[in-house]
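Key idea: predict the complex, not the pieces.
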Amino acid sequence: MSSWLGTLFRVATFGESHGRGVGCVVDGCPPRLGLSEADIQPQLDRRRPGQSELATPREEADRVTILTGVENGVTLGTPIAMVVANRDARPGDYAWVARAPRPSHADFTYRAKYGIHASSGGGRSSARETVGRVAAGAVADKWLRERFGVEIVAWVSAVGPVEAPMPDTDRIQRADVDRHPTRCPDPAAAEAMAAAVREVREQRDSLGGVIACVCRGVPPGWGEPVFDKLEAVLARAMLSLPATKGFEIGSGFAGARMRGSDHNDPFVWKDGRLGTATNHSGGVQGGISNGEPILFRVAFKPPATIGRPQTTADYDGEPAILEAGGRHDPCVVPRAVPIVEAMTALVLADAALIQLAREGASPTP
Amino acid sequence: MSSWLGTLFRVATFGESHGRGVGCVVDGCPPRLGLSEADIQPQLDRRRPGQSELATPREEADRVTILTGVENGVTLGTPIAMVVANRDARPGDYAWVARAPRPSHADFTYRAKYGIHASSGGGRSSARETVGRVAAGAVADKWLRERFGVEIVAWVSAVGPVEAPMPDTDRIQRADVDRHPTRCPDPAAAEAMAAAVREVREQRDSLGGVIACVCRGVPPGWGEPVFDKLEAVLARAMLSLPATKGFEIGSGFAGARMRGSDHNDPFVWKDGRLGTATNHSGGVQGGISNGEPILFRVAFKPPATIGRPQTTADYDGEPAILEAGGRHDPCVVPRAVPIVEAMTALVLADAALIQLAREGASPTP
Amino acid sequence: MSSWLGTLFRVATFGESHGRGVGCVVDGCPPRLGLSEADIQPQLDRRRPGQSELATPREEADRVTILTGVENGVTLGTPIAMVVANRDARPGDYAWVARAPRPSHADFTYRAKYGIHASSGGGRSSARETVGRVAAGAVADKWLRERFGVEIVAWVSAVGPVEAPMPDTDRIQRADVDRHPTRCPDPAAAEAMAAAVREVREQRDSLGGVIACVCRGVPPGWGEPVFDKLEAVLARAMLSLPATKGFEIGSGFAGARMRGSDHNDPFVWKDGRLGTATNHSGGVQGGISNGEPILFRVAFKPPATIGRPQTTADYDGEPAILEAGGRHDPCVVPRAVPIVEAMTALVLADAALIQLAREGASPTP
Amino acid sequence: MSSWLGTLFRVATFGESHGRGVGCVVDGCPPRLGLSEADIQPQLDRRRPGQSELATPREEADRVTILTGVENGVTLGTPIAMVVANRDARPGDYAWVARAPRPSHADFTYRAKYGIHASSGGGRSSARETVGRVAAGAVADKWLRERFGVEIVAWVSAVGPVEAPMPDTDRIQRADVDRHPTRCPDPAAAEAMAAAVREVREQRDSLGGVIACVCRGVPPGWGEPVFDKLEAVLARAMLSLPATKGFEIGSGFAGARMRGSDHNDPFVWKDGRLGTATNHSGGVQGGISNGEPILFRVAFKPPATIGRPQTTADYDGEPAILEAGGRHDPCVVPRAVPIVEAMTALVLADAALIQLAREGASPTP
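Result:
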């Protein structure tokens, strides 16, 4: 249940990690938006596994097909269904999951909730579910760019203990982020992160990390008080991603240590409009965008699947040793960058449409 | 818009800070729950201003009235409307707000969004809006306790730079939290917090803080993948509170620095069920409760209203100096404790009802 | 439990027939709409009991109070809570309801659903619940009139076997409808209806009837395919009213007997726009308004409460004779006219806002 | 927008008539329900075109594929995506639609709403969209039968002026309905209907009709007051079907002509429970099922596409003559029978789950 998100720009995702495929339905995309698979594939490519290994045989993986809602390269305003086939179905690798739940995976809780769990891989709890989100987000992203000039750029700001300095958030582009396989735009930090990842890979372990994101060009007025404050719907969207443990906007947890006289963002006149001299608010005040860049960070725990043997217990409570076979991603944050961007776009597109309704409702402000 | 929350246990709040009153409608509360104003008033009393000042003349403030949905002390299953009158209407104090937006308040953004803003105080963006949430949350809290034995306890874990050690989350009660006016259960930290608050009050400044919360007794299986994961709806609920800047569950941002081999929570047999030896997950895996205590933290920025003069700009862009009159709360986290508990209860009650539907749908698991 | 309606223009109602009061919360009303109790009271007055009896002592009944969301006579864009106190609380009249369910009332089904039912009157199933709808609808109605020039007029088209001829739906006004207490604009039919009502009153019986409604000035484009087609949301709104048994739009059930060559509405150029020569569609094609008047009809069954003794059975299955005390309305359709108008306005306001979002999304059509 | 339906048992449909395919996503289906394409195909077969013509070459049309949510023949509780490919894509047939809107089709209103319309056929407004509904409904239908023993049977009760007598609604089965191609269970009426259809086909015209439906085995307590009364959500579901013009439950419009003393359904003891002697209520009182059979009727207008030339106007307002090429269905009600059943099942499954939550909420009634 609850595989859908949004009020006017609405998305539902479907698909398990080892079934026929994964995908999404986007309902409420504005009509007459130019759209083809070429608008969606790049973000899926940034998300897919095996990007940074040379000569990977999976080059053609994760090709998206638009089934409905687009004709002659233009959206009709009707539901856009998109599907990506699964190619890596490997039933059998996961037989042991039936006997004992993997630590910090969703095996145990899915079984508690549904009384059943997909027999292979993570099923619906797998990160593969995010394919549908990325496809849907690419549609939202394109509309936001074309209609409002909104730019959404996420990057890796920390991997394990390695933290990168803050980039120039007024200028950073996705191309800057993609320059290094870690998707950290700071070259020195990127190298240190890569080294840290190599180290845990050798040790058959994994590492967490942090993704930061900036949204430029969001006009004042987006976000719906009181329960759909912009930071609230962003937080929900981010914490709905697999492996996330935290969200902060603007000053975040550091802001809790500050005094009001330091934290308050004084208003100033800039660029022909009322803006703020500082941006501890992270672009949102009272749940509504204020025209400054929206800035937030998302914490990802280390992947639960590690190559090292782990002690755990089976469903009967008997102690067991689990050892994962296969190759596993020791750090997911580089691939999660487009996912964070996608969720951001979905949230902003929905907020934008709702505010457009309000603006149309009272034509003379 | 979006003054409502929840799917089956649904709440809508209403009211501005300086209008006739504030309140809520709770739709979907189970029938035949014993309920009266006496079940709700205590949490409102913990929330109301002026608690820690002796001889305050506001003793009778914030009395809740149940208008509908309850008869003979029992819920009917129909909407429960509750109202709390505003007594402190002071139009006039806020005339200057019409000329210049207060830094880090919602004056500017409400005007951008609605083209109008309540002329006094924060209007709908005021923390007074949370009265309705606390009343609704008290209903949810009672049902969760009676039906499942769920216990929700929040406390102040940091005020500005003062951080308290982690209490015994298996045992902490609301009475422990209320022992000190700061609502920090650690006596030494509580004293240091009180000193820090006194200091900023003297300096006509304000301080942020952090609230932590534990939920005990939540059975495995609550929370709806994929967009309504339990941590996602908790994050949304918390970030919908005024002045919040961050949310983390379990290991949170610290988890991003960890390795998988340290972060994974091994399963063990305990108390006649499968549990985990550690709880970095914070009681949730794959968005679903796992039976361990749910643990999360919420960051609050320092209150924007401070007595010190601040530089800012008026709506014409002219520099201005703002100086707030009146008494203001230099640190809101002690009063926010019951608000965090209320939002938690609302989220859990909704998740519980949805899971009850599923359990009833497939009677033989 | 679904005491709410709408996506952007959203309303929740609350209140039982014999509790403290009834009311509603309107969330999503556009800001800066002029609004006061004087805009709402007239429709409540048209709805209240006892209108057509001279010298009734209930003159001041059903006074609405706007609690929130309006300041200085203008909406703030925040939730508008409105309350009407109950004055006629008569606990005790209904003691027998605890023993045996009244035929064709909701006593039995509420008890089956909730395990409890308000001890007096209909509780939440009473027509008194519609007070909140009428208040909310008056807000929607005002906005629709001011923003789009939409006019919504309902009237009584049948009472029992008496059917009135179709009025001039291009011109009929509420004042025309109110000229006769039956709210039938055809004088001869109105008299026949009044006679029929007098007859059943004398016989301590009741009569059903039909209400027709026209909406003029709705621009092409309102209504959301596929599940929120305009006729679908209108049908839901009407069938959510107590005592309704049917809904038809345009040709309705008579259209099922027709041939396509007669039923199709040819397009013609009229008033500088593309319109249709006939209007069997009732102003809606494919679920979307086409610019022609929206025309529909709603069937109301005879009130279940009658003065005559009725055979029935008690909760133990024992045969029983029920005899209702008190005065009862033998025909509700005249009072239901403003209720139908209110539900129509709520549905149209929501559809209008959603379409405004779409129009704003693609500025160059 | 609004291509989704339901609160807990939720369905979204997608697809245009001449794109790649049509389908649906079912979110919230209970886990561990046996399910395969074989459970779904029969209702799709009853819906597909060309059933009653011998030797039709379209035998294998409309094969459904379950993409997700089912493993080893059992539902996982996760979203069930289903797709049916379009085979009859015939772009070019509809070039003239770009110049002039077809009378009583959605060409004009889609263009007014979206500024664009699928270039071929009805696009999203085509009856082909209902393929996704029928597939989703088959899932709901199976669950309702297995969990509660609910039986949903619809049939053709009128075609044009030919009305069939009421069948034995306590016993009628789908097999009885399918005995005649008209899906009218009364042999004599079926023959008269077939003759009427043949006549209009020869005249290149079309005919409307009425479908009736009974739901047996629905326990008391389903349906959510006040806006989601069972009759309200049924009415919405039915009026969301293409070509529908009316809905009535129980006594319907005829009930409006009755007196309360005749219309009221006296309670009696039957089959070990409290039931009603008559069923003018149609199985629903106060919006909640009362345990009696739910009975309703849906009016369908004659199909707008007819072979005869029709006068109309083009988008510039110039008079035009339209003449539809190709073969067209002169009467859709026989094929609409499984669609009505599907929508009914979707509505009931959702109502059932919500009531299951409530029953689980208060374990001791």
